[in-house]
Amino acid sequence: METFKAKINRTEQSTKLVLTVRKSNLELVLTDDKPSDVKLVFNQLLVALKSGEFNFKLEDDKEDLYFHVSKEYITQLNSELSSVYNELKDLDLLIKKK
Q1: Which of 7, 48, 57, 74 has the fewest CB atoms within 10 Å, measured from its CB?
Q2: C-beta atoms surrounding 39 within 10 Å
């Protein structure tokens, strides 16, 4: 299983949780309430999951509210990714490696 980085990007305009999956950065804006954006990121994670199981580790040195929210989010996300990966495997929907 691969472990990818999750980082918090704080700016004056917004705060984002950035999930790096292989060569892609997926951004969840923590300061907006846009469920459709979260759904889009999760769908991208599902596509990536077909190539192999992975999880995220939060790397951030500032323990503020965003850190604690992101840490809990990553914990839940990792659990969900593991569950979905096992379902994909059971249904033989993973991409076969040569």
Answers
A1: 57
A2: 10
Is residue 97 one of the residues assigned to a domain? no
Residue carrying the six token digits 């490696």: 97
Domain range enclosing 84: 2-90
Tell me, yes or no, whether 19 lies in a domain: yes
With beta carbons less than 8 A apart as the criterion, state whether 52 and 96 touch: no
Residue at 98 is within a domain: no
Specify the number of domains making up the chain.
1
d(CA 22, CA 25): 8
Query: How many whole angstroms separate alpha carbon 45 and alpha carbon 47?
Result: 5
pTM, to two decimals: 0.91
* Residues with pLDDT less than 70, the chain: 98
CA 62/CA 21 separation, integer angstroms: 22
